[in-house]
Design a protein that fits this description.
By secondary structure, the protein is an alpha/beta fold. The protein has four helices and four strands, in the order βαβαβαβα.
């Protein structure tokens, strides 16, 4: 089955399948070092790829949202190129995305985390 990936759609196509969507997946990654041989995008790419694989199983029932490429990476700031968000910023961003999806009728949100540093903030969001 083909995954329903928001990045690959135009709005009329999404609108046509909106009643079939049961949940949205938000892949959560980071922009941080991963040793000398792996890119800054590692966590984001893994979360997004895994989300798309799940989307292939559920098709139009599951909307795969664009990945969040920034997360909580304070512990890697000594490495050049790492970009981190404040916990408050990250939490507000996740909630704002869920609220926006809710306005389109998508009430179930799945945060698929690819970065351990995001866990605490994600726990706050899912318990809000």
């Amino acid at each position: 089955m083909k995954a329903l990936v928001l990045d690959e759609l135009i709005w009329p196509d999404l609108n046509a399948v909106l009643p079939e969507i049961k949940a949205a997946v938000i892949p959560a990654g980071s922009c941080e070092q991963h040793g000398p041989n792996t890119t800054f995008n590692t966590d984001t790419a893994r979360a997004y790829s895994f989300s798309k694989m799940i989307g292939e199983r559920f098709g139009k029932q599951l909307l795969i949202c664009p990945p969040l490429s920034y997360g909580i990476s304070v512990h890697h700031m000594s490495f050049p190129g790492t970009i981190t968000l404040r916990c408050e910023t990250y939490i507000h961003m996740l909630i704002d995305i869920a609220v926006a999806l809710g306005k389109h009728g998508i009430k179930r949100i799945i945060y698929l985390n690819g970065h351990g540093g995001n866990t605490g903030s994600l726990n706050v969001v899912i318990n809000t």
